[in-house]
Amino acid sequence: MKKILIAIAALIICAPVFAQQTEDDHRRGPHGEGRPPHEKGDRPHGRGKGGLRVLSEYKGTLVDFTYNEEKAYNGFTLSSEGKNTEVRFAPHLAKEIMSAAKKGGNVTIIGFKRSGKDGAEVIVLNSITSGSKTVYEHRPERDGRPKEEFTKADGKITALAKDKEGRVNGVYLDKSLVRFAPHVAFQLGDKLSVGKAIAITGYVRGNREGEVFVENTKVVMAQTLAVDGTTYAVR
Q1: How much is the pTM?
Q2: Which of 63, 126, 148, 181 is a good FRET partner for 99, with 20 to 30 A between their CA atoms?
């Protein structure tokens, strides 16, 4: 009886320690690794996974600005020593960068290289200097979210939009870009093809602060999509 009482007392004393260890193990993950303090969405903008990156300096001439599938400017071509390299930046930086640096001007880039979707090297911009002006990478304004407006549209598909992995994630209708998740395109298959007539409802994505577009392309986040006589809820 005495031994049983001693065992129970030991368990009561050790319980808080075991609870703390369990809580710590839960925070560290299944292998006990410590997680970084920014694991809950506080990761620096544009860095994604991969940890630290070594920054380098690149000098050259800004040939021309480039844009993404939404026709929003998000980079430029840098010419240096007879070689052209694509430079990428977040779209919300476009207004600042295009005000500071002009086509044909000399620029100094601080950034790091990575492989683009076609395997070619691209420079991910951390800062750009043109003359006395320097623009640094920074996060977008959190309180400047664009207002969404409900809309309807119909017409023929003029082109397919694709993400960085080459998956279809939208269609162009004249001057509108209808966006949806890649799994939607996968489910519809050949029903989404150039020349096919479709009708959609959805919400117009307003321009984010700092973005600059090539042309007045309206980006619609699809809510419903009708093709070949069937209407689908887009989820």
Answers
A1: 0.53
A2: 148
